[in-house]
């Protein structure tokens, strides 16, 4: 049976097997599930890998990435084209097909990085139909803050994602910094400090590891670690992710200076 094209996975995915098993357990009894967690914790990678593993269990499937930056009408059209193959020339037919997605087929729809208001605009009256679905259809979403969904999705439909443990974090960082799953002997001690500073966040580990891979000796790493620890929030509103993005900005600026100096003017606060 033909499915939509699969989303691209990172070359190395570490520490998600147990989490994916837990999500699979949650979706058995929850037609709608929201994976929540702070930016950089790996929600997108999680649902991509989950989608790869379970999409074949459904008649049709659709994966939508970074929806918060997308036009909702276009998102709806993509769902219909993935699930029905309709060219959507007739708006009336389009709406009919959208309703049928949840009632006439066993389908899987993954909606990555979506705001509550977008879900309401996207699914509308179909939300209740999906919640009552008995044909095995599932909708899985990701977002940072559960409070944005608690009035739309039942509490049982919440899955809160944790960061990597120390072993997993060291492996991911080491892969980015040394192209191996363990730190080089002469960098072992400073590696532990950097991994601890990244607080188990995959994005922070990946970007910081790539950045420090350009540094030639442990002393340069110590200087870089000091920069990371002393970085202040730079967006001005002190939200949860603010200091993380401040730290990552150091890495991005330094890497861009080495590889693509023309990108420096484009670096700014991560959109809210």
Report on this model:
The protein has 272 residues and is of the alpha/beta class. It has 2 domains: 17-160, P-loop containing nucleotide triphosphate hydrolases (Rossmann fold), CATH 3.40.50.300; 166-266, Orthogonal Bundle (Helicase, Ruva Protein, domain 3), CATH 1.10.8. The chain is 47% helix and 9% strand. It has 11 helices and 5 strands. The protein has a 5-stranded parallel beta sheet with strand order 2-3-4-1-5, sandwiched between helices. Helix 3 packs across helix 4 (91-103), helix 7 (166-178) crosses helix 8 and helix 9 (202-212) packs parallel to helix 11. The two termini are 39 Å apart. Residues 233-239 and 257-272 have low confidence and may be disordered.
Comma- or semicolon-separated keywords:
2 domains; Helicase, Ruva Protein, domain 3; Rossmann fold; 272 residues; elongated; 5 strands; 11 helices; single chain; 9% strand
């Amino acid at each position: 049976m033909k499915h939509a094209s699969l989303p691209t996975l990172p070359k190395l995915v570490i520490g998600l097997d147990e989490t994916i098993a837990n999500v699979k357990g949650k979706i058995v009894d929850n037609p709608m599930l929201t994976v929540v967690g702070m930016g950089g914790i790996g929600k997108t990678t999680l649902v991509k890998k989950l989608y790869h593993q379970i999409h074949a269990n459904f008649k049709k499937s659709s994966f939508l990435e970074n929806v918060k930056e997308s036009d909702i009408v276009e998102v709806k059209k993509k769902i219909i084209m993935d699930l029905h193959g309709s060219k959507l020339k007739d708006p009336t037919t389009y709406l009919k097909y959208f309703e049928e997605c949840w009632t006439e087929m066993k389908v899987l729809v993954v909606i990555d990085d979506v705001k509550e208001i977008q879900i309401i605009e996207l699914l509308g009256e179909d939300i209740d139909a999906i919640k009552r679905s008995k044909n095995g259809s599932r909708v899985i979403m990701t977002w940072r803050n559960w409070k944005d969904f608690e009035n739309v999705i039942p509490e049982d439909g919440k899955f809160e994602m944790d960061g990597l443990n120390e072993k997993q974090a060291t492996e991911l960082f080491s892969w980015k910094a040394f192209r191996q799953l363990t730190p080089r002997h002469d960098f072992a001690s400073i590696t532990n400090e950097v991994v601890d500073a990244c607080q188990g966040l995959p994005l922070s580990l990946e970007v910081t590891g790539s950045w420090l891979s350009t540094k030639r000796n442990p002393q340069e790493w110590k200087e870089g670690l000091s920069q990371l620890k002393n970085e202040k929030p730079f967006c001005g509103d002190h939200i949860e992710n603010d200091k993380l993005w401040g730290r990552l900005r150091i890495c991005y600026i330094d890497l861009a200076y080495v590889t693509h100096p023309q990108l420096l003017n484009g670096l700014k606060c991560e959109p809210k």
